[in-house]
Amino acid sequence: MVKGAKVHITFSLWRGVHSTSTVQSVINSPGRPTEGRRMYTLQQTVVHSIPPHALTRLAREWLTEDTPNFDAAGVCVGSQEVEARLLCKTPQSVLAGSPFFTAVFAEVGCSVDWIFEEGNKIGPDDVMLTAVVRGPARCLLLGERPALNCLARASGIATRCSQLQAIAALEGWHGEVAGTRKTTPGFRLVEKYAMLIGGVSMHRHDLSGMVMLKDNHIWASGSIKEAVKAARSVCGFSSKIEVECCSADEGREAARAGADIVMLDNFQPQELHVAARVLKEEFPTVLIEASGGVTPENLATFFSPHVDIISLGCITQGCPVVDFSLKVQTPSCSFKHPHVKQDV
């Protein structure tokens, strides 16, 4: 939201805030949620990392996918100006994806005013007004589903990442929790961005971002040494090389061949701790990554002073989404939600 912008709200947003208050007064009120403000300060630069042309391209692709030709339902509502309220119905969720949400509506000629900021936790109530969307009715409804899909998915990932990072902080672990390349085809930019908003590392973005030699690469090459040598001849000094290893001996071979990162894959926690300690003692500059079988429930058992990175596929696979809905307001249909306090 632009600093100083005022958007009139016709019902209570947080307890103790009266109707006809402005968004600015709500932000400055004692009831304004403060949790997540430090994260937002850190994540402002993350928002700026998304190229504007990427936002436009993705928004157009999503809209074209959802409405490839006629919009018959648009005839029912016409182009009169309407206002819609974005409601979050999953308390304590981390808001992520607002640039994509806004880009979708910008493509159809609508504006969005945000009440919560990117990276904030949304709460404390069960249903919270999160943003206000304005524009022609048929255009607003064209953007509704693509925008909500993006916001729900991104916020779900950011929320899970925030929870994982909180576990690491509670245990005092020094390393990095990271995502993987197990992302939804065509949606990777959003999902990787959501990881950063949630406070974890996104790992490599794609195959070109870093060299990872997995078991199939090793078997096809004949040995870890040959695979690392061949990869280094192409990537040179500018990219790290990571090797997936199934034993400490394979980890030694990878480190001696010049690997920058040794991934200990599918190790049980106790086996991991022993192998990581042995490798770190022999190769102190090599990064050790643990992956395979790690879940939010058992994450803490993988923490070790000798493990630098723990990656989890569940950050994007099987991650719950955040429940958002968009409710159009019209003079003839006053807003009445059973879980949102109404002014008398």
From TrEMBL:
> What CDD domains is this protein classified in?
QPRTase
InterPro entries per record: Aldolase_TIM, NadC, NadC/ModD, Nicotinate_pribotase-like_C, Quinolinate_PRibosylTase_N_sf, Quinolinate_PRibosylTrfase_C, Quinolinate_PRibosylTrfase_N
| EC nos | 2.4.2.19
The UniProt keyword set, sorted, is: Glycosyltransferase, Pyridine nucleotide biosynthesis, Transferase
* The keyword Cytoplasm belongs to this UniProt entry's keyword annotation: no
GO MF, one annotated term:
nicotinate-nucleotide diphosphorylase (carboxylating) activity
Q: Which residues form the Quinolinate phosphoribosyl transferase N-terminal domain?
A: 78-155
| Residue ranges occupied by any Quinolinate phosphoribosyl transferase C-terminal domain in the UniProt entry | 157-327
Pathway participation: Cofactor biosynthesis; NAD(+) biosynthesis; nicotinate D-ribonucleotide from quinolinate: step 1/1
The answer to whether the entry has keyword Transferase is yes
Write out the GO biological process terms.
NAD+ biosynthetic process; quinolinate catabolic process
Catalyses: nicotinate beta-D-ribonucleotide + CO2 + diphosphate = quinolinate + 5-phospho-alpha-D-ribose 1-diphosphate + 2 H(+)
Please give the GO cellular component terms listed in this UniProt entry: cytoplasm
SUPFAM superfamilies (UniProt xref): Nicotinate/Quinolinate PRTase C-terminal domain-like (SSF51690), Nicotinate/Quinolinate PRTase N-terminal domain-like (SSF54675)
Q: Which Pfam families match?
A: QRPTase_C (PF01729), QRPTase_N (PF02749)
Family to which the UniProt record says this protein belongs? Belongs to the NadC/ModD family.
Could you describe the subunit structure of this protein? Hexamer formed by 3 homodimers.
Q: Which NCBIfam families match?
A: nadC
Q: Describe its function.
A: Involved in the catabolism of quinolinic acid (QA).
Record's protein name? Nicotinate-nucleotide pyrophosphorylase [carboxylating]
Name its species: Channa striata
> Taxonomic lineage per UniProt?
Eukaryota, Metazoa, Chordata, Craniata, Vertebrata
